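Q: For a teaching session next week I want to show students how multiple molecules come together into a single three-dimensional assembly. I've collected the sequence lines for a complex. Could you give me the predicted structure tokens for the whole thing so I can convert them for display?
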Amino acid sequence: MRLLFYVVRRLLMLIPVLIGVSMLTFIAARMLPGNPALLVAGPLATDEDIARMEADMHLDRPIWEQYFNYLRDLSRGDLGRSWRTGLPVTTELLRRFPATFELTTTAMFLAVLFGIPLGAMAAIKQGTRFDHLIRVLSVGGVSIPVFWSGLILIFVFYYLLGWAPAPVGRMGLSVAAPTRVSGFYLLDSVITGNWHALGSVMSQMALPVITLVFAMLPSIIRVTRSSMLDVCREDYVRTALATGLRRRTVIFQDALRNALLPVVTTIGGYYGYSLGGEVLVEQIFSWPGMGRYSIDAIYNLDYAAVQAFVMIVAIIYITVYLVVDLLYAVLDPRVRY
Amino acid sequence: MVSASERAKLEERSARLQRLSRKRFGVVRVVFLQNPMSTVGVVLVVALLLVAALGPLMAPYDPNDTNPRVRMSPPSASHPFGTDSYGRDVLSRVLAAARVDLTIAVVAVSISLVIGTTIGALTGYFGGWLDMVVMRVLDALQSFPQFILAMGLAAAMGPGVRNLIIVIAIVMTPGSARIMRSRIISLREMAFVDAARIARVPTWRIISAHLVPNGIGPVIVHAALALSFAMLDAAGLSFIGLGVRPPQAEWGTMISDGVGNLLAGEWWVSVFAGLALFISVLGFNLFGDGLRDILDPRMRR
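A: Of course. Below is the structure for the complete assembly, covering every listed component.
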């Protein structure tokens, strides 16, 4: 029951944040260089056309009314139209969502899989050569620009060694995409038993996933290490060791389990954060996701699409944070709500 | 959880460091001696500053001089980093870009530091509705992943160095504001603040002369690390065409210029520009970590 109250309160707290986010995107949208009506109407439009367009788009209304219209559209999931394709931006972005989601989630899964053991090991062996090596690698890792490391990987593994396929997107050029079930190619090719497609999907994903994993690893290693160090100083760990329990048992059953809580929150945060790096990685690997779509939109001055993308990412980010927060409250009996 | 011999070694080392820490600038010396990585950071940052200051003097060619006869020539004695598709000398451009990238990062972070510290100090000291409103605005700003917010703002404002600086400053401000605010909230309850109030020190002086200097440490650490993020953001935005405009030399733009050549095996434009960016960011990260050990002892381990 108290948990339910907590959830409700946490949801209510979202309201001011969402209002703030919507105001920010609205203001940013109105700051756009040039008259949006002019852009939509095209270069051949007469003054009358433009005036009609302005009335159509409600640009002649007072600014507060425009904001409320924007909110109304937003609540219906209408984020405007791309003037390049004429399609609703929401449709365009949703169509590309599986590509982005699949890439980020696979990378995050692998980063967690390797990051937590490496971080925990570094903490257990604090001050040793292994610990130093991990620290050097992780500070190096956060310093590498993702858009550069991705390019280097392409150069080495595609151009020089020929191990990786050309960076042409989610599927090799000569392979048909698996029958659409969920939109996630990995899942779809397994469901339909299309092993040929699965191979192509996996080899196409390899380099972008590696790029993202290396971008995510350092933060996960860092948090795990410092959280593990904190926990190892706790009395109950000392007590457990003093009672003669095996070190391995204490580390894996008592220490690590408690150390993982702050790690969960951080991972949630980085999942949203990595969507930023994702944009650049998608651009490099011609990955047909939301990020690449938004960069194309920037090149084409299709600002409604850019704003919509920013808005959707903010919503994903907030949702992930919320879920992680709630998860934390459920997992940690010490959290009072 | 270390073996006996390792523990003896560690104890001996910590005794030596403790003796050292009692000398002048003890903490600084200990930190940099204990952690050679911070020393590397300082060396890299100093090198970057030197290149930014003297780059044009060191450059063998004018960074914007095109020379059609040596287009895309690989690294050689006359062009150590090769030339790009316009025949411009890559080394000279990499050197010239140092000033651009460093200026953007330093100016943007300084602006965010000044504004963020002010916001944090005022909201932290006065609280109330001002605090409520400002905090919700910061919440909203931080509801976007940093790079995505920068992208959205830059798309709205248009490319160019000045806009890039404004965008990065906006993105960086909430972090320093929050840190300052939490420091002020814990400091304002302390006895020395009450003493100052009783002595009728004016409020603005309590904030500016007593509270801010006491709380600035973690904010400075944050700023040093923010410099590395600012550089990555600036280069990333320029990479997608939202930052520094060509023909001005900038690392992100240079990496993006070299993408097409990279797939033809002409690696030098993207590789050297990226290497310069990587080394600079690494320098700020190592430097920031060392600074944190000095200014924020709670984090020391």
